[in-house]
Write a structure and sequence with these properties.
Helices cover 31% and strands 15% of the residues. The protein is an alpha/beta fold. A hairpin with a 5-residue loop joins strand 10 and strand 11.
Length: 288
């Protein structure tokens, strides 16, 4: 299958750090180690990206709020004309609100306290983070991956999100794009019947007017066996440029810090997803 090569991206994902304050069953990102761009190096990157035409950036991790300079980078991005969002597990949001004012949107992950995550009562922390961010005037949304445990709690999750007035986007649980050890994810996955029932409930609630996004039901559990992510340029903590989250750990990618981000994008875009690395939705996005 021939895949159309991308031009310089309008938006990028910046994995600002591999450090995370949680340990999750489906993700071993904490094993990854790279020298992170300094604040000055990251600012130089943002200036260069702005000149290349990048207009939006997602700060991700790890947990991006573990970076002491994350607020500085968010503000600098805004000054460069780059709208930024940030994806967080929510546990550090309340203490970090003063750093987040420059964001276009804050995404809080909803992890059910299901034994697959080591880090305390993360679900309650996420709800508190959403409420605090909303009161602070931030545009906040929530995201949740469907697992064997949390699909049994969907009515409670939907009720909590409705009470907070926050939109929640559900997705299927898939192998984490940062990880090369997914041997334990099977214990988290709902079976076909459980998934079908969960999607039926979510679609009913969506049809009734609730503010939710529901994953495509046609892929079934087959999507659980493919890599996660969407076709998007990704910048690693050290400034390497990868054309797609799916390919992140497959090899060493060109360094924007060493080559300049324009040449690094140009080199990286010549590599693209192939079937063994991609799920059907990713391949469809690549060719759209």
């Amino acid at each position: 299958m021939e895949t159309r090569l991308l031009n310089f991206p309008v938006s990028v994902t910046f994995i600002s750090t591999y450090i995370c304050n949680l340990t999750c069953e489906h993700c071993d990102i904490c094993r990854l180690r790279e020298d992170e761009l300094s604040a000055n190096e990251a600012k130089a990157m943002l200036k260069e990206l702005s000149k290349l035409g990048v207009r939006s950036m997602s700060f991700e991790g790890g947990e991006p709020l573990t970076r002491p300079d994350i607020g500085e980078l968010i503000s600098f991005a805004r000054g460069c004309g780059i709208d930024s969002s940030l994806v967080t597990n929510g546990t550090l949001v309340k203490r970090s609100l003063h750093k987040l004012g420059g964001l276009s949107r804050l995404f809080v992950r909803l992890f059910w306290d299901d034994g697959f995550i080591d880090g305390g009562p993360v679900y309650a922390s996420a709800l508190e983070a959403i409420e605090a961010a909303d009161k602070a005037g931030l545009d906040v949304a929530s995201v949740a991956a469907l697992t064997k445990a949390n699909i049994r709690a969907l009515p409670a999750i939907l009720s909590d999100c409705a009470s907070l007035g926050v939109r929640v986007s559900f997705s299927k649980s898939v192998r984490h794009c940062h990880s090369n050890d997914n041997s334990r994810i099977g214990s988290m996955l709902p079976d076909e019947a459980e998934l079908e029932e969960a999607l039926r409930l979510l679609n009913e609630r969506k049809a009734a007017g609730e503010s939710i996004t529901v994953p495509d039901s046609r892929a079934g559990n087959a999507a659980f066996e493919s890599f996660s992510g969407v076709c998007s340029f990704v910048i690693t903590p050290s400034g390497c440029v990868c054309p797609c989250l799916n390919l992140l750990v497959s090899r060493r990618w060109p360094s924007g810090l060493e080559k300049g981000f324009g040449p690094a994008f140009d080199e990286a875009r010549k590599s693209h997803c192939v079937a063994e690395f991609s799920d059907p939705s990713c391949l469809k996005a690549c060719n759209s």
